[in-house]
Design a protein that fits this description.
This protein is an alpha/beta fold. The protein folds into 2 domains: 93 residues, Fe-S cluster assembly (FSCA) (GMP Synthetase, Chain A, domain 3), CATH 3.30.300; 242 residues, 3-Layer(aba) Sandwich (Rossmann fold). The protein contains 12 helices and 15 strands. It has an 8-stranded mixed β-sheet, with helices on both faces. Strands 1-2-3 form a 3-stranded mixed β-sheet, covered by helices on one side. A two-stranded antiparallel ribbon has the order 6-7. Helix 8 runs parallel beside helix 9. The relative contact order is 0.14. Bound molecules: adenosine-5'-diphosphate. Adenosine-5'-diphosphate binds next to helix 4 and helix 10. The site of adenosine-5'-diphosphate has 19 residues, from helix 4 and helix 10.
């Protein structure tokens, strides 16, 4: 008979990722019992919070790891049990110790890149979402903090509707296209905007950097509100060593406004890494290029700020459609000229700011109970 031992079952199931904390079951010590009775295996697994999604997930994934793999195992029973409050607190404490929040840390593995613009409507959020998706395509882990409090649009652009989960005091960001996302927009609704006052905003950003389980991604992109306001100052204070990308259009007026944002960023301690020029031109079906918003703004701004021009993104009507249905164009239509320019900008950015080495080693969790 091909029946596994308890150790073999534990080793196989231990590699299953807990979907909220994204750590292995053995690492989190969530497998609480394995009983083998002939061709039936009964597994008890602890879940980290209420709701049906975790039991449902384990009921699907655990049998799939055993049935078929061991020909004589014909039945797998899965039971779930809740962690006690004490166990949950110990687990969250260990995860936080292992990967502390990003607030105030200059030793973090994460490259933080704020994306700013002089004024609204230049395509800053569109650029941010596509650069995030493109960095994932390149094999990087990516977080996205939507700090554009007045014009937050990232959740819609990425088709995210669920609120972040909270385990103890740890906020688990939803993930879409491999990007972990936290947006002010996920804590409010689009038709019921919160009036954010300066100190509230500062506190909210602080919480997003401290309590969100970003898990030290290679990159954290921060979508800033347009202009030179408080949010940039808070980000520079909270995230020493953060860089900034300025998005502008080819128009001279836009370039001048963006220049102020660039200079201001440097004053607050964010070093500008490059410029992206969006809506650079429109290419007709006949291949002819139309400079609808003028030309030269991005190049001039890059020269003035003494940084590279990372890319020139053409006007692409499908960008608007894709933004409305929640899918980045670099994934949906990677061969179009706009997607290629966005991919190029992301690659250029990753060349200038390569992922930092990971120094901290993961500490394994204390045993919370046995099996
Ligand atoms: P911002 O974040 O700067 O306010 P958005 O990213 O929200 O700007 O973009 C404003 C609008 O312009 C959106 O409707 C978006 O879909 C559209 N848009 C952005 N970039 C382009 C582009 N290159 N081609 C066509 N439409 C674009």
């Amino acid at each position: 008979m091909s029946i596994p031992t308890k150790e073999e079952v534990s080793a196989l199931l231990g590699g299953i990722t807990e979907p909220d904390l994204r750590r292995g079951l053995n690492e989190l010590n969530l497998i609480r019992g394995i009983e083998i009775d002939g061709s039936t295996i009964a597994v008890t697994v602890a879940v980290t919070g209420p709701g049906p999604h975790l039991p449902k997930y384990f009921n699907e994934v655990i049998p799939s790891k055993l049935i078929g793999v061991f020909p004589d195992v014909t039945e797998v029973k899965v039971a779930t049990t809740q962690l006690t409050e004490q166990e949950r607190a110990a687990m969250v404490g260990s995860v936080k110790k292992d990967t502390p929040g990003l607030l105030g840390r200059s030793d973090t593995h994460t490259q933080v890149i704020a994306i700013g613009s002089g004024k609204g409507g230049v395509g800053k959020s569109t650029t941010t979402v596509n650069i995030a998706a493109s960095l994932v395509k390149q094999g990087h882990s990516v977080g996205l903090l939507d700090a554009d409090v007045w014009g937050f649009s990232i959740p819609r652009m990425l088709g995210i509707h669920e609120k972040p989960k909270v385990v103890e005091d740890m906020i688990i960001p939803p993930e879409m296209f491999g990007v972990k996302i936290v947006s002010i927009g996920l804590f409010t609704t689009e038709d019921n905007p919160v009036v954010w006052r300066g100190p509230m905003l500062h506190k909210a950003l602080q919480q997003f950097l401290e309590d969100v389980h970003w898990d030290e991604p290679d990159y954290l992109l921060v979508d800033l509100p347009p202009g030179t306001g408080d949010v940039s100052i808070s980000i520079a204070q909270f995230l020493p060593g953060a860089s900034m990308v300025v998005v502008t259009t080819p128009q001279q007026v836009a370039e001048k406004v963006a220049q102020r944002a660039g200079f201001m960023a440097e004053k607050t301690g964010l070093s500008v890494a490059g410029v992206v020029e969006n809506m650079s031109f429109f290419r007709g079906d006949d291949g002819k290029v139309y400079n609808i918003f003028g030309s030269g703004g991005g190049r001039n701004l890059a020269t003035t700020l003494n940084v590279p021009l990372l890319g020139q993104i053409p006007i692409e009507p499908r960008l608007t459609q894709f933004a409305d249905i929640g899918a980045p164009i670099v994934l949906q239509h990677p061969d179009c000229e706009a997607a290629e320019a966005l991919d190029g900008a992301a690659k250029e950015l990753a060349n200038i700011l390569p992922p930092k080495p990971r120094s901290a080693k993961r500490i394994s969790l204390p045993l919370l109970g046995g099996h």
